[in-house]
């Protein structure tokens, strides 16, 4: 039951910690800024970020009914009624979430903000020119088109390997901490 919460918290932490350390495009020297802009346009960075977000939302949608059924078990519903309520609630939540995410997250803008900071930090102008030249090749174009799927699969496989261990660890720690609480006096 904690896996979707842990996954969402991890994604949120990753996005906010990365975003918090970024600099604006204006802080990057003009010639380098133009190269970074060209690279972002060539690699379709904003579109890739939106595709990755969409795939992450799809994974969340798959996990949501399991999470909700844990919460709704205490409602007194059972069997088909519990399943129907879980599915109906999940559908409403997903629909509302998909409607609100674009209003809250402009992935293209976030990607640009992060990218200017990171490319400024790790690449010289000459290296950016080399990277741009690579992305103009057929192999570079393939990298551009496959990266969103590659990232999505990587995240999915990482979650399969990491989240069960993290969930077990959190459950162990919570049990230990609950065990340390003073007994409730009557």
Please explain how this structure is put together:
The protein is mainly α. The chain has one domain (30-171). Helix content is 83%, strand content 0%. The protein has helices at residues 3-20, 30-42, 45-72, 79-104, 107-122, 125-135, 138-180. The longest helix is centred in the C-terminal third of the chain and has 43 residues, at 138-180. The relative contact order is 0.15.
Keywords:
186 residues; mainly alpha; 7 helices; 0% strand; elongated; disordered N terminus
* Rounded Rg: 22 Å
Shape: elongated
Q: What is the residue-averaged pLDDT?
A: 79
Cα-to-Cα separation, first versus last residue = 31 Å
Topology as H/E string? HHHHHHH
Strand content: under 5%
Number of domains: 1
Low-pLDDT residue intervals, each spanning 5 or more residues: 1-9, 12-23
Largest sheet: none
Number of extended strands: 0
Number of helices: 7
Structure classification: mainly alpha
* DSSP helix fraction: over 70%
List the topology elements.
Elements: H1 3-20, H2 30-42, H3 45-72, H4 79-104, H5 107-122, H6 125-135, H7 138-180
Helix pairs in contact: 2-5, 2-6, 3-4, 3-5, 3-7
